[in-house]
Design a protein that fits this description.
This protein is of the alpha+beta class and 190 residues long. It contains 4 helices and 10 strands, in the order βββαβαβββββαβα. Pathway: Amino-acid biosynthesis; L-histidine biosynthesis; L-histidine from 5-phospho-alpha-D-ribose 1-diphosphate: step 6/9.
Length: 190
């Protein structure tokens, strides 16, 4: 496990991860819905995660959600790059009842996000707009290029959970070991 911490006036966060784990996790962000999504992310990426966040949730969940994405993404970047002996490219399409979300991914060390989920309003007490904030923080800080696109769906919980699972499965596939490829770039560096 490798660990990264970040403390601001708004949040105090510690994240530990094991890239090639078993999907074990211990997550407490202070935001119940985010905990549920990150537990699912850990399970389906097979990345072991320990996350603790103490945030100013008495204001709202924004800072905690975004800052967890920043710390998790930064730590993932530290363990991914320079990339060598992995697939690098991947995609997955995850169905959850009526919802279907696709994630196409390149572990390029060049961050870019296409986010096309039609989720607004609330899921329980959680502001659905924070999903985009999380993914933007996570993807950009992880230096991943990802397209997260809703193909269909109506239930916000299903759409969001399918998105987290599709990102998780795409990461699992992209980090799959492939020693034949060496450095997976014609530039000879990632």
């Amino acid at each position: 496990m490798v660990t990264k911490a970040r403390k601001t006036k708004e949040t105090d966060i510690s994240v530990s991860l094991k890239l090639y784990g078993e999907g074990k996790n211990n997550i407490d962000t202070g935001v119940g819905f985010l905990d549920h999504m990150l537990e699912s992310f850990s399970k389906h990426s097979l990345i072991d995660l320990d996350i603790k966040c103490i945030g100013d949730t008495h204001i709202d969940d924004h800072h905690s959600v975004e800052d967890v994405g920043i710390v998790l993404g930064s730590l993932l970047s530290e363990v991914l790059y320079p990339a060598k002996g992995i697939e690098r490219f991947s995609n997955s399409c995850i169905v959850m009842d009526e919802a279907c979300v696709e994630c196409d991914m390149d572990l390029s060390n060049r961050p870019f996000l296409v986010y096309e989920l039609d989720v607004y309003g609330k899921v329980g007490n959680f502001d659905a707009e924070l999903v985009e904030e999380f993914f933007r923080a996570f993807i950009l800080n992880a230096s991943i290029s990802a397209h997260i696109v809703q193909k269909r769906g109506k239930n916000k919980h299903h759409i969001i959970e399918a998105a987290f699972k599709s990102v998780a499965v795409s990461i699992r596939r992209a980090i799959a070991k492939n020693d034949r490829i060496g450095i997976p770039s014609t530039k000879d560096v990632l």
